[in-house]
Queue: 3 jobs
Job 1
Amino acid sequence: MATTKALKKVYTHLEAITKATVSLKASGVSNDELAVVGGKLAQVVKTKGDLVTLQVFSGTEGIANDAEATFMGIPPVLKVGEALTGRFFNAYGAPIDGGPEIDGEERQIGGPSVNPYKRRQPSELIPTGIAGIDLNNTIVSGQKIPFFADADQPYNNVIAQVALRADVDKIILGGMGLSNDDYLYFKNEFESAGALSKIITFINTTEQPPVERLLIPDMALTAAEYFAVDKNEKVLVLLTDMTLYADALSIVSNRMDQIPSKDSMPGSLYSDLAKIYEKAVQLPSGGSITIIAVTTLNDGDITHAIPDNTGYITEGQLFLRADADSGKVIIDPFRSLSRLKQLVQGKKTREDHSQVMNAAIRLYADAQNAKTKLENGFDLSEYDLRCLDYAKEYAIKLLAIDVNITIDEMLNTAWQLFGKYFSPAETGIKQVFIDKYWVNK
Amino acid sequence: MKSTGKVTGIVSNLVTVALDGPVSQNEICYINLDGTRLMAEVIKVNGNFAAVQVFESTRGLKNGSLVEFENKMLEVTLGPGLLSSCYDGLQNNLAVMDDVFLKRGEYTKALDEEKIWDFTPIAAVGDKVAAADWLGEVKEGWLPHKIMVPFSFAGEYTIKSIAAAGSYKVADTIAVLTNEDGEDVKVTMTQKWPVKVAIKGYKEKPRPQKIMETGVRIIDTLNPIAEGGTGFIPGPFGCGKTVLQHAIAKQGEADVIVMAACGERANEVVEIFTEFPELIDPHTGRHLMERTTIICNTSNMPVAAREASVYTAMTICEYYRAMGLKVLLLADSTSRWAQALREMSNRMEELPGADAFPVDLSAIISNFYSRAGMVVLNNGKTGAVTFIGTVSPAGGNLKEPVTESTKKAARCFYALEQNRADKKRYPAVNPIDSYSKYLEYPEIQSFLNKTICDGWVEMVNKTKNLIRKGKDAAEQINILGDDGVPMFYHETFWKSELIDFVILQQDAFDSIDALCPIKRQKYMLELVLSICDKEFVFEDFEKCRDYFKNVINTLRQMNYSEFESEQFNKYHNELNKLLESNGNN
């Protein structure tokens, strides 16, 4: 059955083939190691006696049951080095931009976790100019936060803007199931901003097999760890779209006959996603990894297993929504949250930040109640009318994603809106701040 | 004679081992991976094969690798030095590991064996003692840490010798005991205990008698938890589970706090050991970290150790309870532990129950909750373990197996609600759905009426009723419109808003409002209820709304002011003027 070629054993009989996996009899195989089956890259996912099951990344189409299989003895690796910057790679870490191979140290991807005790509390603000983020859901270095967006929302444009405005040393983009158009969009945006020198891209487009996507986050994060841990740099990792990543997970687990849990996702979805997102870290040396991801939703449904598990793992979420009243795409203040915002609000930003933020959102909620009343055909009170006017202006001036101002400007804008539409008591803000910042009509 | 075996199959962290001798369920073994020893636990035995769950990544592991069984279950080391420590789920001390990354197979000592402790004997030579009886004590921080007869000692012993007061290390012999057969056994300041077995060694486990103060109004006032009680906090993500739990950890009236970060975010643990050493325990004035032990298995750490982490935490709690201390265990989140069980059950190809969870999930959860409780020790003193777990229901839907199983086991239910969180009404505990069964206990009722004030329970029930009435009124107003309902509907609604804004809502990030002692809770509840008792006269509903908004705003400013300070009194006077301007008693 097996012959020896160049010191590596070559197996030539597959016991079973499914759409994503093959099984064969082999010995001396280690868990997680890579193999080549019929010229395609595969990874060991299960051994039972001498029967080894491999997941074939690019799918098993065309693999014959007498295909040659050789084991490589190592799990997937990425060659790391300064030379990664400005380059584009596929899911296996091979260049796709026509440039030379990277000459660097080989690192196993999906490596161990940082000792929680060695972490530092995130405390550096990452300003984006978007008030829906900076004012209401401030992002901090070392944080992990996804955009929750329906497929028709301009989420890739928003994360491209966030990436270009963020003050970081490296930006690493992991694209999973990106359309070719979106891939080129990112490339053009980064190039025209002249930012390519600090950007590294790992791409799996819709033209490539879905299972290959499973490697993208680990590749991107291995590169990120190199810059954050070895070089003490601030690294921002963008992962889009994690829903397609999870879909690939469910394909593999399904082929391995695992019992699915909610929404036909594997029972280990939480751990699988956590392994990726928890790579976000603030290190004592000053290096950090911040992850901004995209999770696309099906018609805004956040109870689906993918956004649901994501929400429990990440430190908040940014919810994109088209707002009919203002005609803008806004960051929904109700469903969005940054869990780390209190680490910087009022500490790295002005003292009135959190009170202003809360009051502005509470009044926006009052406007929503007024809207419900209106829809039910009731007369609106004078207060309701003021709330509605306020809500529209608040959405345009502060919630819309096309806003680009400093945080002090955001706070001043909010105070102007308060003064224009409300009395101090209606805002419920602490008296000391009212005394200091209140703007009369 | 320890058994050995060889690896014959690997799926993720589930490894099958061919055995050469006897093994027992839950026995610990080590798998040799090129010189690195990976710890694992037997979870199933079938013929000459054992299925073991590995507490580490199995990357690179090969069939044929040697497995050595240890002839014991997963144990923790108990002794002075547990407090202020940060352990992983298997009680490895994370603070003493050098590398930034966690290394596979790196296991540490749980206690500092070089540290010197000042020992004072309590028992004397010739005393008859049994398991869990106190032999002496050392000062761990400010806590009297009792050195006990090991829990594993069966039967009665006579003290043959006991160390004199002085300085000792944890491994030094501090007593020699003679058993009923006349054999001598040495006792040190440390002992081991298997985590999945409850520590007994107490006389009885009576019903809870007292309330554990948390400083959180929506808990203490509305649905108090008993000392030695159990409670759980389910809620969708983003509703403030962790903030609420941290508030309880900071303010809870307990001698020892054990926090089990089970499958949650690493940054939350970082927050604890960044902030706690700075924060002061409001009850003793000592640093919070001095009374806190962290057991941390974050979501990216090995899944099997997640399950172990909650048991490790509970065992440490039971150990301190046996010293006559009040212990509070917070586990965030028990859903992650249940998911770890599900992952293993799935890999073992067991027939699944609801949502692919193992069928015995409910039994496992209630068994765990039952380890909490107040106990009367053999010497008549009492100790308590109060347990509050969080649950992360999939999709925020409370009709899922973990929430339902926990509801059967826990006595307090603090339902966090998306709707309240969206409106930033924190803590987002639903005041109507949540409950505390302890409020119905006659012994707790008389405790409350005695220690807070006469008629307190009645006041609490009245408050709850006002909230319910307010909700009904709000529904009517929504259906019929502001003008379509009589004036008193508006008044009823705004009175419930008054309770909501002043009593239920609390700013966990405000230095003053975050902690509300019982005395202040009583003051504010009486004040708010006295306003609710008034009947007001309003021309229209807008006047009613404006009036109550003013009242609420003034009361909130009181909440933000130091209790009974000049500022507090100033707002109180403003409030009195507002109240004089309208309404009669």
Job 2
Amino acid sequence: MRNPLDSPPPYLPKLRVGVVAVVISACLGLLIARLWVLQVIEGQTYANRLRNQTTIALRLDGARGPILDRNGIALAENRATYEIDLYLDQLVRDYPKRHRGRVPRIQVERRMGGATLLRKEPDIYRVVMTDLIPIANALHLEVKLDPKELQRHYFTSPNVPFRFASELSYVTVARFAEQNLGVPGIDVAVRPVRHYNFGAFASHILGYVGPPGEKERLGPDGYDLETMGRIGVERLMDGQLQGKPGGRILRVNYRGYIVAEEGYTNPNLGASVYLTLDARIQAIVQEALRTVGRGAAIVMDPNTGDILSMASVPDFDPNGFVPKISQEDWKKLTSDPTRPLLNRSVSAYSPGSTFKVLISLAALKYGAITLQTQIFSPAAIDIGGHLFHDWTKTGRGNITLDEALQYSCNTFFYQLGIRTGIKHLDEMAELCGFGQPTGLSYLGESPGILPGPAWMKAQHPLERWTTAHTANLSIGQGFLEVTPLQMVLLMGAVANGGTLLYPRLIVGVSDSQGRQLASIPPRPRADLGLRPQDLNAIRKGLLAVVESGTGHSVAIPGIAIAGKTGSAQAKRRWHGKLYNDTRAWFIGFAPYEHPKYVVCVMVEGGIGGGATAGPIVHKIMEGILALERDGSAPQLVYFNPAQGNFNGLTEIQPKVDTPAPVRPSVPVHEEEDSRDNSSADEG
Amino acid sequence: MTMVEKERLGFLTKLARFDWSLLVVAMALSVFGIVVVYSATYSSESQDFRNAAFSQSIWLLTGTAVFFVLSFIDYRNWVKWGWLFFLLSLPALFLVLGIGQTVNGAKSWLRIGPISLEPADLTKVGFVLFGAWWLVRTKSRGIVFAAPLVAAMALPTLLILKQPALGSAGVFLPLCFGILFVGGLRMRYVFLGVLCLLGVLIYAYWGVGKLGWDIPGLKPYQMNRIRTFFDPTLDPLGAGWTINQSLIAIGSGGMSGKGYLKGTQNMLGFLPKNISYTDFIFSVVGEEWGFLGGAAVIAGECLLLLLCLRIAFAAREPAGRAVAVGIATILFTHVFVNVGMTIKVVPITGIPLPFISYGGTFLISCLAGLGLVESVWIHRKPEETTLGGA
């Protein structure tokens, strides 16, 4: 029994137990409070972190839509290419099993949260090499891997496959599959890659694609695009052509292994773009044009403005830009003096006598002459104290407009231009779209130059517009510069009865199921405003040009072709010497009664319109006729790039033995040429 | 010197005095524990893990039997030989240092035939009995009372630190303090103790946390754990991995959790499989059952502790009070440190969550401890029932 004297000092045990209960409850209450903060207040933050670490979103690039000609022949589409992908994480995981050994490790420095830590990580380079070398050897592939890059890829994105080899040949892929070379983690993947089916075919129109530059452009969904259109239709229609990307959301475990697929959206094929081009006519034109070193050719439907063919020589193979053009090739293309990247169809040149068509239109429209008016046209006439020559030594005597057109008589047109007046000439030329873009700016077109008094004041304030300038303009020389496209549109208006059209290159856009998304109708631009009998007279004159005039080289039995030749003098400085670099032109239409084709050919370094451009037009028309007659068209093959050259340049002897008055007679001309030279070289 | 008083009670009397509430709460927690252990292991490929829930059920049945046996035996029989139990548990601690099995970096398991046990758990209970024994042996409530207990605490603490199992070793300090405090230690020593505790806290927070001091005698990996406690971003893929993943698991659980068997952190292995059903089971609770589930577990544990303290409150006999408070302190320390480490309140140390974590010896130890407490209730003096009743 307890003795009170022996008992320990008194205290309040129940109170102390109570204190313990309070302390315990408080501590556990603290835990609950902390739990509340963690789960309810900050819960969303942690949920996001969870999502970030357990799911990866992969973007599946959409395939680019095709570009087709008017008949549905694909000019640019996607080709499947094969590549070998390395799944680094899986290789590391399987390493011990496959090679009966520990995964080799390597000491790596990593910066983490401001501190640099030395970490032991799997030596991914050795792991990869162990598995890859036998496969690469069997496929005769060279293995070039950067260990550092590999290690970084493994550290930063172990779930994203590492691309080891791309653009594998089909033979290689077949061997890979046949010999069953793949191991888990090394696999062949298929990727769509842009392909231009016929090589250097309408390449200036189609353009090309390339990888987007650093931060250059993001897709509509904020992701980097795999490729984007660089120039031409590829660039203009990039938004339509781009396939809508799909995506996969994958659930990964703590080691990054994919355990399930949470979501999948199919990548889509982009929309198809239909061009007005007819691949068969394009082939005919390109075949015909590649005989020259530099030139352009356009075939257009005068009733709709549809560009059936547009070619420029030299050209290039856009496949060279896929997936990425090499530095070397790019330099070769850009430093080539014949400038293969330049689309000559929409570049500006001196039109020469082809411009007489416009002068005739203006003169008749504004009543400067009638169809019966005769103008005395000698070998040379004096304008403002300078002698202006015809290209014949004899002159033509008293002739009317249709005869003047037929023989391309210069002295007639000098006077005709001056009679009409520069104001009316410019008005008409402006109406016909000269000096302005035609609307195909995405082809890099030049507006050309339409000179006149106002233009002179702005560009050359020290000079004044004189009748000599007007005379020069009247034969398509001087400051005037036009593009083959502008000329073809002018001829189109003459052919179709007086309606100037906008050129049409894109017919419409359809989605991958063939449903039409957009269509672009033909669009008239202006009415020439000529009396029908006047226009008919000009047409008749143009018919005579081919039948019995300067353009006889074009003539084909059985079809009436009308047209106009032109030979514009231009000079080019090349290797320190001055050369004549004559631009030979022919613009025309056929058949005469119900025109279906307008053709324009321009050759740089030609002899003359009839001699150089004429035979090419002849060949083109022959090809088109054969196509119309029995559908026989040249087989669409892979076109190698047409090579440019400077053949046809004739050297100008430093000692000029031509009569002295000639030089001052074309003062504007001289200056024009020197300017032209500089622009041709730098441009 | 007083003899521990003994009354002989019949079995039926004992049964009539049985406090069922203690058992009901403990069983509820344990059954919930098995449910969670199943969730933490069902997706695992290893057979060992997949059997965990079943094994735990067997352990629970065994533990319940132990609970009943100890409930009906007068605890004073044990207290009388308290010094002996404590001394007997010490060689096991030596033994484990020699032939123990290493689990998670600590040599803390003894394998005897088919069963493995953690001697540290036995020592904890042994220390409670030893404390109760000394409490009734000495009249002093000053140095003479405290010094042997502190010395006796230091010995197993050092041995367990040697394993090294920081968490288990850390249980002895509050345990010793709890017994001394409730045993009637003079207030001046109590204040001294509280001051020491505050000193340690300040040292840990300012010295180790802010100034980067090393704690002498700790292994580098233990130091790393403490460092990453203060800054989990230090090495998120290394030492900070577990705490970060645990925070993500619990935090992403939100108010009501992701649902049973739907915890991705555990399923996908972000929460390491080998600890998600033992020491980090609370992370699974938090992820799958949310704040409601987590708070309920903490509240359940708290209720259990308060029931123990109610028994201590009702006991007028100091040894019984000491046993009840001692056991409660052990359980409390486990709950606080275990839950605390998963939600970044204390550094990570490997100690399990009573009744919830997988682990045979620990579950049985806990139920045995509760059995002792129940015995204190059953064998209280009849007149002490004034506060009783279920």
Job 3
Amino acid sequence: MTELSLHRGISVHRIGAMILRYWYLLMSSWPRLLELLYWPALQVITWGFLQLYIAQNANFFARAGGTLIGAVILWDILFRGQLGFSISFLEEMWARNLGNLMMSPLKPIEFLLSLMIMSLIRLAIGVIPMTLLALFLFHFNVYALGVPLIAFFCNLIFTSWSVGIFVSGLVLRNGLGAESIVWTLMFAIMPLACVYYPVSVLPVWLQYIAWVLPPTYVFEGMRALLIENTFRTDLMLSALAINVVLLVASFGAFLALLRSARKQGSLLSGGE
Amino acid sequence: MTENDKASSRPTVADRSLSAAIAVDHLVKVYKQTRAVDDISFSLPRGSITGLLGGNGAGKTTTIATIMGLVLPTSGRVQVLGHRMPEESAAVLGRMNFESPYVDMPMRLTVRQNLTVFGMLYAVKNLSDRIAKLADDLDLTEFIDRANGKLSAGQKTRVALAKALINQPELLLLDEPTASLDPDTADWVRGHLERYRRANNATILLASHNMLEVERLCDRVIIMKRGRIEDDDTPEAIMARYNRTTLEEVFLDVARGRVNGAKEAAR
């Protein structure tokens, strides 16, 4: 896999080969498929009932119907999007297949694009049933959000890819000893992204940090939509601008970490 | 012709690299404090089979990984099929391939699925025909639709070899290609490699601890020790120089530091 021909001749055929590889893997293992469905379903059921309970006892939540369950669904798009990306990458490490790929004509950009597409496929398998559960159990129709949902989704998935690209680079450089970052980094973002509460709750100095994260804009935007019936395009455009910067930066970091892995000689070992 | 004339007419590494399959020029690789490869130079002509010998930690794997572009050299230069590695690797990666015990094929995918994926990555034309041919040549047909993880060690080695040959490479890098194979299958694989080289004029660089394999397959042997090239010649010339009848004896001489004594005894 070469770093220096990134912009020349991206091959759809090679991206297709990688997607086929992950599809074969997914279809060969029912526990993998089940896991995609299990956690999102558990999340929506737990938080859905909590929202029902709170709504019965708190006037604000009765008015702001869906903010909790909506936040759960959007958070899962962010979290599962990153996991979908990173797990496909980790599969190569676990299978000790990375050397085969690195030695093939596959380019880093093609590898990353295939991981992005796989994150969408994995997300669809996990999140679509979750949204249907929310609809039938709690009468929360996330699709009724309409066009804003597309803006929310795009911004969250772009952030999830940026994080996925960066942590994959870390694992590439440091081996499977860095695997825990894949599972935990997004949770470090969670309190600052203000998933379940408005940014104004945070101390002022922390608010500056929160506004650096694109998901903060999305969750604020969701609350504005559900509570005030206002779609804040300004928030979505700000999130998009930060996402572009994050995607470029994460790709640059991935290439730097790949180069460092080549220097270190860790591409053949990939161990701890 | 005087010695000086001979020296001046001898092609430099840069000249040889134009026609060579592999040209390694003053390659050094240092990992933190360890000098894994220490200023080695060699050039392999196209169509040759060369054995890379040496004990554990001699620098064979690092040398091969640098040739493949998986490891960046600390200094020195590597050219593969006329292109600098890793800077111009895009021009050559599709024309070479490798097999190594340091990598596996995905275990949950069947042999056919694995070969399909790698065939697509290498843009192999008429892929199903190519897979059928490889299955026939390497005797994979019986288990081609079985998951790779459910194969025996010998079957996995044959599948890895099929992956290494999927794109009919001009350059094949093999690290212990017959380890874990029974003698009959190993012999059969060696025969296949010889036939492949002849039919395709392919260049093969082979790291092995099996001295009989190297004697049988290789036109040339490079012996490494502690990151340096200890000797580089035909197997016959090396055995004669050390006054030994097998490469295994030469290997032991080099590994145990009996090099000078053995060479002097030969003189």
